[in-house]
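INPUT
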Amino acid sequence: MPKLTPKDLDVLRAKSVVIKTTISVGLSSCGIAAGAEAAFAALGEEVKARGLDISVRRVGCAGMCSMEPLVEVAVPGQPTVMYGNVTADDARKIIAEHLVGGKIVKALQVQTVNELAVCAFGDNSKPAPAGGPKQYRIVMRNCGVIDPESFDEYVARDGYQAVKFALTDGSSDAIIEQLRISGLRGRGGAGFPTHMKWDLTRKAVGEERFIICNADEGDPGAYMDRSVLEGDPHAVLEGMILGGFTIGAKLGIFYIRAEYPLAIERVEKAIKQARANGLLGQNILGSTFSFDCEIRLGAGAFVCGEETALIASVEGKRGTPRPRPPFPSVKGLWDQPTMINNVETLANIAQIINRGGAWFAAIGIGKSTGTKVFAVTGKVKYSGLVEIPMGTTLREIVMDIGGGAAEGNVKAVQTGGPSGGMIPANLLDTPVTYEHLQQLGSIMGSGGMIVMDDRDSVVDLARFYLEFCVDESCGKCAPCRIGGTQMQRVLEKIAEGKGDDTDVAALRRIAQAMQKASLCALGQTAPNPVLSAMKYFPKEFESRLKKSTPAAAV
Amino acid sequence: MIKLQINGMAVEVAPGTSVYEAAKKVSVKIPVLCKHPDLDHTAACGICVVRNKQNGRMLRACSTPADNGMDLSTEDPEIVQTRRSVLELMLSKHPNECLTCHRNQNCELQTLAADFNIHREVLDNITPEIPVDESTKAVTLDARKCISCGRCIQVCQENQNVWALSFVDRGIKTRIAAAGDIPLAESPCVRCGQCSAHCPTGAIVEYDESEATWELLRNPDLYCVVQIAPAVRVAIGEAFGFPAGTNLTGKTYAALRRMGFKAVFDTNFGADLTIIEEGTEFIQRFAHGKGELPLITSCCPAWVDFMEKYHTDMMPHFSTCKSPHEMVGALAKTYYAEKNKIDPKKIRVISIMPCTAKKFEIQRSEDMSSSGTQDVDISLTTRELARMIKQSGIDYQTIPESQPDHVLGAYTGAGTIFGATGGVMEAALRTAVHLITGEKLAKVEFEQTRGLQGVKEAKLMVAGQEVRIAVAHGLGNVETVIKKIREAKAKGEPLPYHFVEVMACPGGCVGGGGQPYGVTDELRLKRAKGLYSEDTAGIWRNSHDNPYIQELYRDFLDKPLSEKSHHLLHTHYKSRPTYQR
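OUTPUT
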C-alpha cells in the first residue's frame, strides 16, 4: 500500500461514500456477549440468500448496552430504525419484513422515549438545544457509527486531519496552546491538566521520550475505555501520534489489560493500517517525524493503572508503585521522560485540534471542560455508556438518561469506582465536575457510575468496594496492605451485627492512616466508599450496630 | 543550594537531598523503618510522613527531595497519630514474640513501638502461619516477622546482584521468599547474609548454632578449639557498649577461654598463611607464566559461591587457596594435633566469623575435610558469640585480656587487615613485592587499596614491571571488574589487571552479614580503622615476617605450594547451578 501524503489523505476523506441501504450491527464485546455475532451472521446469510444489495456492517458499541444486540437499519431517504435484543431469528424477520416487505418490525424496535436511546443514535456532534438530548458525543462520536476496523471510514469522518495539521502547519507549541485553551484534564480520574503534562514531558531532559496509553481500565462496572478502543481505535491512535509529535517521542505504547482481547485486536489492526498508510513509521505523511506504536498487555492488576506501577509492569517488574516525585514526565519508562494518558483523554485530542481549544472550553462548566463518558450501571432502568457535557447533574444522568431506578427508588450513586464515594439521592442535583464530586467525598474517577436502589445496603456495598481494594492492593506499603484487610475485618464485624462504637472508631482511625500514609492513590482512596457511606448513611451503620436487620431507608 | 523550613527552622541542603536527611541537619529525627542508609528508599513503611504546611498534605520524608520554599512540619497530633496507626497496623500482622526473638532488644520495630507508647494490641492479630526457611543453614528466614520493608530484597538484588530474594504473592499475602517461592538453598542465594544485616526485625537472622556449640563444649571427651576472624575483634564490642572499632582481641580470647575452649587461635594466622600461599601463587602466574592472570582472591565464601554460580569462566583465575579459617581448621586437626599429641578425632574446631556464608563454606566440598574429618566443625557469627558471652556470665567490660595459643595464634598486621576491603590485596602486595624484589619494603602501606569506593584500581611498578590491581567489594561491584577482564580476553588485549581482590560484603568482612546490627558506612570505616590501627601498632607487618609461619613451613609444610600445602590448604572449584532444580 502506498504511504499517504497530506494531499492523499484529503482525497481519501472526500471520496464519496456510496449511498445504499446498510444494516449496522454493534459488534463490540458487550454486543458479542449478548449474541450479536449470531444476528450478524444471520443477516449476512439472509441478504446473500435473497440476493439483496445491502451492506451488512460491523460497528462499535453505541452505548445502549441494556438492549444489545443492536441492529440499525438505514434505508436512504428514510429515518433510521434501531432494533434491540435481536436474535438470529429476529434478524431474518427484519430482512423479510422491513427490508423486503418495507414494514418496520414494531415489536423489535427500540423505543426512543428514553434519553439513552435518543442519544445513542443520530447526530450528536452538536450540543442539543434546551430540552433536547442530554448527551454530547466527542469521545464516542464514532462509536456505533463507523466500522472500527475500517481505516477509510475513520478518515472519512475527519480522521487524521489533526495529525496532518500538526505535521504541515502545526507545531508542538500550537498543540499545547490549544490544549491549554481547551482546559482538557486527565480523564483517568485525577484531572491533571493535560497541557501541563504534555509540556512537562516535552521539556524534560532525557535520551528519548515515551508516550503510553493507559488502557488498564479496572474499576468494577466501568468499560468506557474498552468501548472506545473497540469502537474507534483510530481516534485513540491519532491522539497517541499527536502526543508523540508534541513531546518528541519515537515510541508509543498501548498498555491494555489482557482481559480486553477485542480491544487489543482492534488496536493491533489500527496500528497495522496506520503503518501501511504512512501514519506510523518513518517520515509520517512525508514529514521528518517518525513514530511507531506497540502494545503491552497488562495482567489485570488494578494497581497497574497507577502510572508508576504501570511503568514497572511494562519494564517487566512487579507491578508496584514507586514514590513520586520524580514524576513519570521527568523519569518514567526506562528512567526516561514518559507521558501517560488515559484512553478517553487521548480520544479527545484530535477533536480539540480540529475544532479548536475554545470550542472545547465552551462545553462544561468552570474548570471542568468538555464531556465525560460514564458507564451507568447497577439498579438503573437503562444501563449503558453515556457521554455528557461536564456540569450535567447526576439527576440528569441517572433519572433522565438512565430512566431512574428499575424498581423502587434511587438511594445513592457511587462515582469513581472503588476510589470514589456514595452520593445520596438528596444530592443528585450536584453537577458532575472534578471539584463538585470531590467536595462530596467522592471523585470523578475514570467513569464508573453505579446506581443503588432503596433495597441496597450501603454497608454491604462499602464492603464490596473495600474487598475489591484489598484484593487489588499490591502489598508494597504497610498502610494499604494491612489497613485494608483490618478495615475489612472490622466492617464485616459491623455488618454481622457484632460491632460497637469502638469498631466505628477503629474504622475511622485505620482509614485516616491509609489516606495519609499510603504510597499511591489506591490505598489513599480505598477508605472513601466506607467513609462516605458512614457520612451520608450514619443511621444505617448505627442500625447494624444494634444488631437489627439492614435498614431500608435513611 | 536548596532552602526550606522544617518546624520553622531554616535549612539549607544540596539539591537531591531528601527531606529526611535535611531534617537531620536541624536535629530533627524522623522515625523510619524501611529506609536504610545503604539503600535507596523503598517508601514502603509509611512511618516517615511529614506535613507540607502549604497544602496541608502529608508526604514521605524518605523519598521526597527537599525543594526550595518548602515549609514542613514533622510533628503535630495528626502526624503522630498517623505514625502510631501505621505501627499498630504493622504490629497486627507481626507475631509480637519479642521475648523469644533473636532481635529482642535490638529490633527497629520494637524500638519504635516503645517510642510511640504502644502498650496494647488494638487490632486482631492476623499474622499467617508461614513455615520458617532454614534450608541454607546459614540464614533463617521467618517471613511471619517480615514487615515487607523491602530492604533485604533491595540489598540482594540491587546491591549484591544475587537476585535470590523477592516478594511473592501480593496484597496482604505479600511475603519475602526466594524468587519462585522455593527453598532459599535451592535459589541463587550465596549466603552473604546482607539480608539479615539490613533487616529491621527478626525476619532474617543468622542460622543459630550456639546450642550446638554449647553441646560440643560440654562434652568432656572433646577438645574444642576456637579461632576468631580479623573483623570480629573490632565489631563485637558494639554488643557490649564499646565504641565502634574498639579492638577487643584480648578480651575476646579471655571470654572464649572461660567458655571452655581448650585452645584459642586466631584466623589472622591463617590470613598470614594465605598470603604466603597466594603470594607465591601470584608470583608463579605473574613472573613465571604458570597459570592464568589475573589472579582472583578466594577467601570470601560468598564470592566463591557467586563465582561458581554466575561467573564460572573465571574459575581458572581463582586462587586455589582456601579461606584463612579453613586453613587454620585443617592445621588444628593435623599440625597442632601432632605437635601437642592430641587425637585429632577429639578435636572440634569452632570459627567465630563476621560471616554467614562461612556456615555453608565448611561443608562446601570434600576439600573442606582435608584433615580426615570436617576441618571446621561449626562456624558462628559475631552476633552468636556476643550472645554466648552474655549467657556465660562473663563481664566482658572488665575481663582481663588474654593471649592466643600457639602454634596457630600469632599474627602480623598484614593478617589483621584482611578484615577490611583491600586488606587482602595490601597484605599480598607486601609479601609479593618482597618476594619479587628480594628487598625489605621501605613503606608497607598501599593506600590505593583502602577506603569504601566500590571498585578501587591501581598500578604499581615492581622491579620495573607494571602490576595492575583491582579491589571490589559488594557483589554488585564485581560486574564492572569481570566485564573488563572478559572484554580484554575476548579481544586479546592486554589484561586490565594482574591481581583482583573481591569481598562479597560492602566494606569487606567488617561489614559482614554476621556482624552486629546497624551497619552503615560510618560504622564500616570505624571498624576498618580499628584494624588498620592494630596493623600500624604491631611489630610484624608482613605475613612473611611471622615466625610461626616460618616454623610451620620448616616443621610441617616444607614450602609454599608443596604437596602437603596443596592437600591441606588448597581447594577446587566447580560450576554450580544457580537454581538447584
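end of record. Residues 478-495 of chain A form the longest helix (18 residues).
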